[in-house]
Amino acid sequence: MSRKSKGDIGSARQRPQLNLVDFSFLDRKAELAGLLQAKSRQVGRSLVENEADFWKFVGKYEAMMRATGQPVLPPLLAESDLASTQPYYRSKHLALRLEKDELLQEAHAEVQAQFRHLLLVYLDFRQTEKFQRIRKLRQAQRNLPIARFRQDLRDALDTSRVVIVAGDTGCGKSTQVPQFLYDFGYRSIACTQPRRLACVSLCKRVAHELLDDYGSRVAFQIRFERSRTQRTNILFITEGLLLRQLAVAANLDQYDALILDEIHERNLFGDFLLGVTKCLLRARPQLKLILMSATINVELFHGYFRDEGARLVQVPGRLFPIKLRYMPPPALELKAGQATAASKRSHSARIDPAPFVQVLSLIDQQYPTSERGDVLIFVSGVNEIESVVEAVQEYATEQTHWLVLPLHSGQAIAEQGKVFDYAPEGWRKCIVSTNIAETSLTVDGVRFVIDSGKVKEMSYDAACKGQRLKEFWVSKSSAEQRKGRAGRTGPGVCFRLYTADQFNAFEAYPTPEIYRVPLDTMLLQMVSMGLPDVRAFPFIEAPETERIEQTILALKQHCALSVEEKITPLGSSLANLPVELSIGKMLLMGCVFPEVEQLLTLAAMLSVQNPLTNRAHTDQRCVRERESLESDQGDLFTLVRLFREWVQLKMRREGTRQWCRRLGIEEQRFYEVTKLRAQFQRILESCGMVVASSSDSQLTSAERATRHGELRQLKAMKRRQRFEQPRQRKLLKQSGGRGQEDDEERDEEQGSDMRDVDFRLRFDPRQLTLLERSARLDRHRDVVLLKLLLGSGFYPQLAISDEFNYCKGGGQQFFHTRLKPFVLQHPNAHFAKHYELLKLTDSDLLAKPNFYTPKHPISERHQLLCYQSLLETAKPYLINCIRLPAAQTLLLFSFSIDTNAGISQIVCDGWLGLDLPMPGSGMELLSRAIELRQRWSRLLYAKLEDLNNKQEASSGVSDGSSTLWHELLDFMALDVAYAIKRLLPADIKRLYSHETPSTRLMELKENPFARDYPMTVNDEKGGLNVSEHVVYNCLAEQQWTMAMDAALRAEPWTCPRCDFELEEFDVLEQLVHRSHCKGRKAQGRKPKSDSPVSMPETSRSSSSHSSGSYYCKSCQRELRLSKIDILRHQKQCRNSK
Amino acid sequence: MEADEDFVLDNEAAEIQRLGLPEEEKKPTDPEEEDERIARIEFLCSGCEMQEMVHYFGRKPPFSLGIKYPEDNYVMRDPFQPPPPRWQTKAEYYISLGANCSICSKTVCKDPGCSFYYTATFCLPCGQDELKNWPVEAQARIRKQLSASQGNKK
């Protein structure tokens, strides 16, 4: 049929026949290959997708013909012959013809013609294959339990706006319901998923079923990644992102159907979405809402949407029978003995992997490897995964048919994807997973489930504002879900490593997340979405009222909510930032300063999971490699240094993956930092908080040309990868149980590090330089400012060293937070290893004045820790600490500051007391702190106001900000001697005088601390409110403060800056004078950059000079001293007189 | 929920729609109606009710390379291969799902349970009527299919 002209036929019949006994096309491959080519402008365009596959087919075909006794190839027929039914030729079954006009070469000889015919047979065979592939796909869909409920769903949607689809694992609801909706005519369907990975895998699956693997009708949108285009009809999106969209486009008008999947998981965002969509239904009468859940507690959801007339569609699951075997680890006493012995050695109660390996060995004994079936192990956390993986790998060195794959949410997506790959024939995958594989993520082919019965859950302790990560027994419903994973593809076995009695004692359902996490971010979002009263939010199960109240109070303290619980400009900006409140706050606080580059990097670093892996701390090689980069400012600063090092490698175009592995860094986190940082920048720029950077224009033309070439190359790589991506499941490599590492190495050989390609696409050399600079923390003043900003965000998360730390070793360095005493540094933290950094050295201790009798040490070097979070695992640990000068930090950030009349005593937030027995030092510190705070918040509010009025930030603001910056640095570097102590309940009882202020105070014409703040009497504590945060003269005098007063009153006082003199030392008079002192005003106007204090590190030892020269009258010398030192000097002089 | 995922969820609230990645939003260069890449022809098998949208009905799909069909076929672009650049073709970028029965003109898919091809497409019922006119080899083949499809129905 390759030859159709009549003339050819006659000659063809005379041609010698081909006999496959003594002939093979394979012998003439080279000569025949040209016949496979089509006419085309492109060289070498073949008619077959895969030539190797074609030649394989030729071989098989020939063999088949020989085997069936038909070695003589039948003659080729003309088109007209092919149409007549008689006589019989096999070729008459071929429903395909070659298009001669499109072929490159003509087939003249019989060999060539027969070869062409064979090509046609092959193409026809491939058609059948592809057709069957589609048909099988459809059959599989039709066989899903949900398929029978398609019409029910349609009816339900016709009659109601809310439909609940309750179906067990494996009923196909997650993949099919979005497609049903598409078939019903909905064209903009959003389907939420709790996890990113589920979004991606569902998107791929549904796209495949819609035969749209290479299109974008189905898309996903997760953080940092989206495949959505204008053609997208079905979008899989994470819950958090949909909530974000709600915050921006209040009614989600872009969607006509909304599917909330996995609502039974009851995570925070899921619950939040349920409430929000309940409200949304009123605003959007056209919207259809479909809730999907496993058959867990369905009545709860049905009842919740009863008023909306929710219809329930219940779909039975499709599970094969699962044999249940309870296999508690034997003899608990014996085990307990081993466990303690082991834990003594390793200092941590690690999971014992032996029972898991025993089950594997049981499987090996009872089920031949010829029977396929993989193993899924459920453990509680990443550490447990590592232990089990390690043990199984060891086991796999003997039983070499095991492929071990860890699975948890901390992995990169590509890494997680490996669990879907096939194990080769005769091998078994052993997937060791957290509860991530319990519901949403479905791995097919699992026949055996080994359930530890444990889950790690974060709980929130409102009492100490800390989180607790603890291992619990799972709930009954979770245990059943886990079991169900064994029966998806065939009958299975579930091994439970606990007893039936234990199972019966499990809780029915897991605790909803809303009871286990802080509510601040969620409540703030609610208010910013316009909810007038969060207490009235229709929670499906409301958290305790007390916790809501506490959270509202905290939001007010952070000035995110006004006293009337309305959103403040700060609050709405915070709600806009997709980060924890503390990080959002530091970003905004930092925006008033001229440079935010470093802050952005730091904040991004704080927002990702810790880039250091466990190995980073256990493997001594990693520890050594990192040593030189450790910062004595704490782990956060070390991480930024590592990040900078990484960016520098990128700048030199060196490979970073190896380097990361050597140092124990999870590189994915650094990529996340770069993305997150860019996102912060975008958000802050878009709302006018920072000035947009214009980096592109600054490339030279040569650079642009190079960049252009590079971009083309990178884009080509990306396209290639995109089209390779919807690959079918790969066959896992057989490598002695170590599937994962090997795969990574293979990727590396190919040099196809797509994350690197993405990174290079986003960063041109110029931007890389900026990024590198943003991670540079060499200048001491940058470090100080950043620490200050960190502190502003973390506050009130402060911890103070235990007073006996000075005489204890590393393991016993305790710290106290306001709400929780005796917490520790995490053992891996820099401050745990170098705890001396937090201690006062002997040289730091200063002599006490005679009147100061308390035992607390006096020093200028007291430090406090500011921490990001308090996490209780084995012990309560402070996470991500920075150290800050104590007094300055407290005075800048405390919500409430109380002092006595002489300002020799200051109490911050009712738990930390400062004693300042050096005359005048308290006044100096406090007055300056009040002034700085006012200026800072004024600048911030000016920015936020501008932003609300949609104006450009005025340049005047940034001028003010740079002097503020310098003055803050001066302030932080002030050398003030004081003692710091934690107040005990007994102290607090006697703390306040509760006296109305003296007439002298009441008669003050003007607030000496803040002129424009109206002073009022504080009825509760006594004294006067002199600023938003400060109450003056409310602390009861102590013995030593009275003694100090008495000692000072005997002396006259001269203002160190002007010639003002007082006959006796009187703090109030001094205060009044201070606000009018001409010398100070002159000082204040001086540009601070002249001041030598701007480099505090260098000037610290020699004490800081912020005033010019000083002439001491009593010793008649010209001195260069700071204010405080002048005071000190005066006193010494007097004493020596 | 486990520890490290807590971070993830917090941060999940990340991407703001309006700040997204605009460069990925490609406007269709043509009005959608003219986009030949969209399947608009409905194929419905009268035998098994297999239902798909296909791109082409006829003998020579514009997206095929080097082949044609001897009768009108329902053909879709191969969804399992990356698409070629627009207006271009590539190897085996076509899948025929079925054709109309040469006797009764009913649409039938390529599955052996629905159709039989011998010199032309026959739906199985028509094939059963027609087979007596065929050589024995062809008869044997269709009988095999008929009995298999009846076996399936039982």
Automatic annotation (TrEMBL), chain A:
Signal peptide (UniProt feature, chain positions): none
SMART domains registered for this protein in UniProt: DEXDc, HA2, HELICc
Nucleus in keyword set: no
Region (Disordered): 717-752, 1078-1110
UniProt biased composition (Acidic residues): 741-751
Helicase C-terminal domain: residues covered: 362-530
Sequence ranges assigned to domain Helicase ATP-binding in this UniProt record: 154-314
Keywords: ATP-binding, Helicase, Hydrolase, Nucleotide-binding
Alphabetical list of Gene3D superfamilies matching this protein: 1.20.120.1080, P-loop containing nucleotide triphosphate hydrolases
One example GO MF annotation: RNA binding
Regions of compositional bias (Low complexity) in chain numbering: 1091-1110
Top-rank lineage group of the source organism: Eukaryota
InterPro entries for this protein: DEAD-box_helicase_OB_fold (IPR011709), DEAD/DEAH_box_helicase_dom (IPR011545), DHX34_Znf-C2H2 (IPR056382), Helicase-assoc_dom (IPR007502), Helicase_ATP-bd (IPR014001), Helicase_C-like (IPR001650), P-loop_NTPase (IPR027417)
Protein name: Probable ATP-dependent RNA helicase DHX34
Originating organism: Drosophila suzukii
Automatic annotation (TrEMBL), chain B:
Start-end of Basic and acidic residues biased regions: 21-30
Assigned protein family: Belongs to the CDPF1 family.
Region named Disordered: 1-35
Stretch forming the signal peptide: none
InterPro entries: CDPF1, CDPF1_dom
Domain of life: Eukaryota
UniProt domain Cysteine-rich DPF motif: residue ranges: 43-142
Residue stretches of biased makeup (Acidic residues): 1-13
Organism of origin: Drosophila suzukii (Spotted-wing drosophila fruit fly)
Protein name: Cysteine-rich DPF motif domain-containing protein 1
Pfam families from the UniProt entry: C6_DPF
